[in-house]
Design goal:
With about 170 residues, the chain is mainly beta. It is built from 2 helices and 11 strands; from the N terminus they run E-E-H-E-E-H-E-E-E-E-E-E-E. It has a 4-stranded antiparallel sheet, covered by helices on one side. A 4-stranded antiparallel sheet has the order 8-9-5-11, with no helix packed on it. The longest helix is centred in the N-terminal third of the chain and has 9 residues, at about 50-60.
Length: about 170
């Protein structure tokens, strides 16, 4: 996908979102408050106060043109990731970096899609602790990962499922 662009209006009250078509991206843009489709320009428009939220969404799908001028710095980390999901994915243990899942909840596989938050450099080990990708699972990954400096880490766990990470070095 080509880099997306955020274009501020002359009065600074609105921002146009210019991005290649992607159904998932469009569905996320539709969650933004005050968004509207402009059929003349073929851009989505949002109120200027929604810029940070729009940037967070666009980063999950690739680069933003005004962020290409300075490449973000990254830190290489050795990380142990564990995640678990119930058979119907109603309970998920998740590990997130800037809101992006490191392990896909659908099948417990690593998220290898390019994104602005992290890049998996090396997979030292990958194993199912229990279950299988088609049913309930618990997985563990020993990774070397490049993480964008300033990225926020998060986990979600429920009484039925866990998501956690340990930074080894």
């Amino acid at each position: 996908m080509q880099p997306a662009a955020l274009i501020k209006s002359a009065d600074g009250l609105t921002i146009a979102i210019k991005a290649g078509f992607n159904t998932s991206l469009v569905n996320e843009i539709k969650t933004l408050s005050g968004r509207r489709w402009n059929p003349t320009t073929t851009y989505w428009e949002i109120p200027a106060e929604g810029e940070a939220q729009a940037r967070a969404i666009l980063r999950r799908y690739g680069a933003i043109t005004d962020e290409l001028t300075t490449a973000p710095t990254t830190t290489t980390l050795h990380v142990l990731i564990r995640a678990e999901a119930s058979s119907r994915r109603t309970h998920l243990g998740r590990v997130l970096i800037d809101g992006i899942d490191v392990v896909t909840s659908a099948d417990g596989a690593l998220n290898m899609r390019p994104n602005a938050a992290f890049t998996i450099v090396t997979v030292n080990s990958a194993r199912f602790l229990s279950g299988s990708p088609r049913h309930a699972y618990a997985v563990e990954y020993d990774l070397v990962i490049d993480v964008r400096d300033g990225a926020s880490w998060g986990t979600t766990s429920t009484t039925n499922c866990f998501g956690d990470y340990t930074i080894i070095a």
